Amino acid sequence: MQLGLIGLGKMGGNMAERIRLGGHQVVGFDFSAEAVARLTASGNVGVSTLEELVEKLETPRAIWIMVPAGDPVDETIAKLEPFLASGDILIDGGNSNYKDSMRRHAEATAKGFNFVDVGTSGGVWGLKEGYSLMIGGDKAPVEQLRPIFEALAPAADKGWGHVGPAGAGHFTKMVHNGIEYGMMQAYAEGFTILEKKEVLDLNLPQIAEIWRHGSVVRSWLLDLTAEALAKNPTLDGLEAYVADSGEGRWTVFEAIDLNVSAPVITESLIRRIRSREENNFTDRMVAIQRNAFGGHAVKKD
How far apart are CA 133 and CA 126, in angstroms? Predict the structure, then answer.
């Protein structure tokens, strides 16, 4: 099967290679000539324009879009549309908001195209481990894409599935990432408690390695944490700044709308936001209030 792929960054490039290894051909486009050249060198086909990408694909075409969420997805679809034909399939494999995916599906189907939203997890490890794919959209195009999903997943029958109608794939991935926020925060807090107990002189890389085998808290995330601690046990050279790409916020908003209590995910998001504040006003306000009502000491610059 042929697949058009737009966006050949680290993740897109790894996906293209995994698809090739699965016996399928990728025709790929990226604004980076170097990325296009790498794709061609790997045995796939790199092109320099979206029109050329569409021309090289057999009909009905399947085009996977791996660009940043938001306007870039809409802009890419708008540029593709003049070259598409009825029955072609557009796939958004990025971290789009599920509401945007529902809208894009309605717009695409009204014009005779298909639209499939794929929540994609696996990051830079996907080439080796396979990708977890949460798929939303109509049944027929999802079935047409089965060979691609089977090539990308950890196994043909594991790690991927059609989870529901348009938007369901990205909604599921959104909640997946919210859970990830909470897991990361719990590991981070636990290891910080261990690190602060200086009197016991605990070896964090050793403990992480112990927990990886037989423990109830073992996970792939712990595997990665153990590897990172082995390389840099004291986290030297790292700034206490944690970004978020949006999915945690969306999960919290949905929890509120659905009257679901989600304190762990919510607090993990707040902690990420807090990490970006230098000498933050909130903590200074609390300090001055304690000083006002109880005469507690305040630290000054």
Answer: 11
Please, what is the average pLDDT of the chain?
94
Question: What is the C-alpha to C-alpha distance for residues 83 and 42, in angstroms, rounded to an integer?
Answer: 27
- Whether this prediction's pTM lies above 0.90 is answered by yes
Q: How far apart are CA 19 and CA 155, in angstroms?
A: 12
Per-residue pLDDT tens over the stretch 271-286: 999 888 888 888 888 8
d(CA 256, CA 289): 30
Beta carbons within 8 Å of 162's beta carbon, 6+ residues apart: 135, 136, 137, 139, 142
pLDDT at 64: 98
Phi, psi of 27, deg, nearest 5: -105, 115
The C-alpha angle 173, 184, 93, rounded to 5 degrees, equals 25
Residue 238: the pLDDT is 87
How far is residue 138's CA from residue 34's CA, in Å, rounded to a whole number?
36
What residues are annotated to the active site? 173, 180
| Distance separating alpha carbons of residues 114 and 69, to the nearest angstrom | 19
> Are 97 and 103 a contacting pair, CB within 8 Å?
no
